[in-house]
Write a structure and sequence with these properties.
The protein is mainly α. The chain has helices at residues 16-26, 28-31, 36-60, 67-93, 106-110, 118-134, 139-162, 179-189, 200-216, 221-233, 239-257, and strands spanning 101-102, 165-166. The protein is built from eleven helices and two strands. Helix 3 packs across helix 4, helix 3 packs across helix 6 (118-134) and helix 6 (118-134) packs antiparallel against helix 10.
Amino acid sequence: MEDAGTMVQEDRGMDAGTAGAAGAARAPRRRGGFSPLGVATLVAAVPLLSLAYFHIGSRYLGSRLGFGDYLVFCTVLAASVTGFYQLYFWMQDNNRLLPVRRLATPLDEMIPFAPSWVWVYSLMYYVLIGFAATSISSLREGLNHIFGGAVLLLMHGACATLVPSTVPARWRAYEAGTLSRRFLKFIQGIDNGRNCWPSMHCALATYLCCLMQATLGPGVFVLAALVAVSCLLVKQHQIADVVPGAALGWIASVVARSL
């Protein structure tokens, strides 16, 4: 585990203008859309994931859905997630109406920098999406879950637009010497850093765990807690981002389950 002592400290006077300019310079990387290879990978993954979800759901969760049902659901899910990502980045690029804020506290400064947690931060919610997909009892329930995800995305976009928030610039000033650090740099390269509040990672993880609680039990929230911890340890979020993110996820789950 790497600690804060290895982080390269940057001048505390680095201002939001510098960070904003860097974010603007990086923006074109994601505006090109999906590459042909990316689209081909997505198309190939849908039937494979459908088969995996069918096997896990029918064998371990008692699902009565057939392979065709999972194929329909995964096709809609893949198209929705692709569209959600485009909307997410569009909202991120256009939340420049109000001045950006930093919500870091002295307690945040005491949390060590542990870049090896980037793998939990980046990949855990994909695992949660898979768990949620296998746990649906009907196509209607699956569509309700996707709709709830859209509601969550729109609520998060509204919050980030009204309260643009970032982390201290020095938190992103470190040497990319290890695989974990290089991967974290890559993630930060496609993120303009103005939508930290509330944490979308915490929101999505909480949302998915709320949906799965009835099937997998309350222990599933341990996974949401791991995501929250990872947000703080990789210095992508502040404590003030985490709890509101979880609250946003819970609200979206109430909407999805009420349909």
